Amino acid sequence: YPTWKRTLARRARESQMKRFCKAQAIQRRLEEIEVKFRELEQQGIKLEKLLREENESPADQHTQWTNQLLYLVQKKNNLMSEESDLMIAVQELKLEEQQCQLDEKLRSYMNKEDTLKTLEDEKAEQEILKQLVEVVNKRNVLIQLQEEKRLSEL
């Protein structure tokens, strides 16, 4: 078993573990965002009730409640934006994993001697190459989407 094959296998395992850890961190953050959404929703409901029920409250109080409500909406929008970014990151991780698997399959076909390849092997190699290009294009679309989102936020 040549050294370069062991090195490739080790690097593949390392990158897979990195993707796994990143996916776990994203999942934890998504769960935290969900909890925060519920908290903000409850706070918003309380403020809305106060605004609707307390007609004899001073105008200062109404202004303060309205400002608090707007602040909650802003926090919720920020969380939604972060959630959107995380969902894009999840899709990117899936595509990255798919790309690694296709790379590995393609490498196994390419390492085979040309004289030993059957017609089915050549067709499979071309199909894998086609799938790999599709995955790379999908990743490129995600990166462009992130860049457009970042620029629109600026």
Automatic annotation (TrEMBL):
InterPro entries: bMERB_dom, F-actin_Monoox_Mical
Keywords: Coiled coil, Membrane, Monooxygenase, Oxidoreductase
Subcellular location: Membrane
GO-annotated molecular function: monooxygenase activity
Coiled coil: 23-57, 95-139
Top-level taxonomic group: Eukaryota
SMART domains: DUF3585
Domain BMERB: from-to ranges: 13-154
Coarse class of the protein's main subcellular location: membrane
Any single Pfam family the record assigns to this protein: bMERB_dom
Keyword Oxidoreductase: yes
Keyword Coiled coil: yes
The protein's name in its UniProt record: MICA1 monooxygenase
Organism listed in the record: Zosterops hypoxanthus
Gene: Mical1
